[in-house]
């Protein structure tokens, strides 16, 4: 369920930015590593780099950087969007992505600590 929630927020965020690239300024606090879907994180990193370089963010601009099937996936995300940019939705997407990334990070840390404890044979 968590991953579905993250993926929906990630897709929504990317769709909003494709509709209105200036929204990248509001997504500054977000890191590509916080995305649960590797492709979506890769697309976000690409968007960040293009935005900082003053280059256009669009689906046609993805050619040469992404595989055709990846571009097709992003195109489908954009087609699902209502075509309306909503800054509150963008803030909500960012909050969900960061919250879910934080949960994943905590879980990964606990698993690493448990593995270490089990390996050393103490702590329980």
Label this structure with key terms.
single chain, 124 residues, mainly alpha, elongated
What does this structure look like?
There is one protein chain. This protein is mainly α. Helix content is 65%, strand content 0%. The protein has 4 helices and no strands. It has helices at residues 2-19, 38-52, 68-80, 87-120. Helix 1 packs antiparallel against helix 4 (87-120). The relative contact order is 0.18. The mean pLDDT is 90.
Number of DSSP strand runs: 0
Largest sheet: none
Order of helix and strand elements from N to C terminus: HHHH
Poorly predicted runs are none
Helix percent reads: 55-70%
CA(first)-CA(last) distance: 31 Å
Beta-strand level of the residues, as a percent range? Answer: under 5%
Question: Over all CA atoms, what is the radius of gyration?
Answer: 17 Å
The helix-and-strand class reads mainly alpha
Mean pLDDT over the residues: 90
Shape summary? elongated
Tally of helical runs: 4
